[in-house]
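Model it.
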Amino acid sequence: MIDKPAGLTVHPAPGHPCHTLVNAVLALCPGLSKSNDLTRPGIVHRLDKDTSGLIVIAKNDFVREYLAAQFKSRTATKRYLVLVKGRLSPEQGIIEAPIGRDPHHRRRMAIVEAGRQATTQYRVREYLDG
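Modeled.
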């Protein structure tokens, strides 16, 4: 597990060939799981560039496939703590909607008809002054 800071790209891509989490991890552990995608060695799941949080990196193919299957089958639970501007109403609920690339902002995800079905449970933890 690595605590990825916001602003760090996870894997090399057009426009980000270096200074990624994968580059740093490969420098420390060059024998990481390569699987079928050589640009994502050891990467089990995705975490957006501007999102901070824990990301799972597998050292071998068996573990990567085992953990990736848990994320794919949704038996792994992901929890996020999010700072939101404004007040949510209702203060807790469930959002079930298909998520995919925002057609107007390709770097963002949005609710889109052709997206992948997603379920999000949320609750307000606290309101901050201002």
